Amino acid sequence: MEIINTSKGILLSHVKNFQLEHTFLCGQCFRWNLIEPHRYIGIAQGNVLDICEQEDGFLLRNTSLELWEKFWKSYFSFDIDYNQIKQKLRQDAVLKQAMQYGYGIRILRQDFFETIVSFLISQSNNIPRIKSIIETLCRCFGKKITYRTNTYYTFPTLEDMAGIAPQDLAPLRVGYRDRYICQTVNLLAENPSFLTDIVQADTKTAKEQLLSLCGVGDKVANCILLFGLSRFEAFPIDVWVRRIMEHYYFHDRKTSLNSIAKFAQEQYGEYGGYAQQYLFYYARENAI
DNA sequence: CACCAGGCAAGCC
DNA sequence: GGCTTGCATGGT
Q1: Which nucleotide is at minimal CA–C1' distance from A258?
Q2: How far apart are the first and last CA of chain A?
Q3: Above 90 in pLDDT, residue A287?
């Protein structure tokens, strides 16, 4: 990959294993929006980024080389060798097919707190509605940022949300999830070391701690580990992943989540999270 | 009208 | 331990 500072913005050229649709539409993130073909605007860690995929590479507007090095490079996981990951996963015929479809997926390193709240909202919900609820959450509790005369909102921090009650979330229309969000936010606000301890902990301990949060079960805990803590071995099993796994590996027979999880651990090991994302995107886009 | 969506907690046995 | 049920909301 090469980086050039141009008058229009930063240009990343000769980039492999990256495609905006694959990365932004694979269900891991909720704050990237299509503004024109192959061009997205997203908000992360208080920054608005305007990113466009064109013939000569990826054009990044509203950022700087400094901010790229300091934040976006890691956010987009450009320290990870996807060739090696794919080479390993290609040994599995199903993954080979799924990766041909979603070859440009990269797992983003998202904010820990944002991931917790986002995936509390995600449960038993659909992606367009999750995005809409999170947008309202940011309007209600986040901070304003302006880019090109448009107003954007940051995802609220723990401090922004501390002390909220279920009725404060009424505009979001999150239903029964309101108490999950309030209880979790207030517990985190009252226990400042809870999050920092998890960041330091090994994955097994981190998962146990996450499961102690109200509204966090096995699936949401694995999403938080994968997307918010960069524990790339985590394998969240939702209805789509369950369906595609049962279809390709279990002869279309109804299979328990434990059996699927055990199989995934043995089949993909430390690459479970990547496998899961390729499978999820493939299953959803092809309605398997 | 029923059924589904990146599931979970609580209540059974 | 594992299995079932109720749950808010909005879309098809």
Answers
A1: C2
A2: 35
A3: no
> Distance in angstroms, CA of A173 to C1' of C8?
8
Whole-number Å distance, CA A14 to C1' B3? 46
The whole-number Å distance from A217's CA to B13's C1' is 22
* Closest-approach nucleotide to residue A218, Cα vs C1': B7
A148 phi/psi in degrees, rounded to 5: 55, 50
Q: Report pTM.
A: 0.98
DSSP string, A94-159: HHHHHHHHSTT-------HHHHHHHHHHHTT--HHHHHHHHHHHHHHHS-EEEETTEEEEPPPPHH
Q: pLDDT tens digit string along A224-270?
A: 999 999 999 999 999 999 999 999 999 999 999 999 999 999 999 99
Cβ–Cβ < 8 Å for A226, A232 = yes
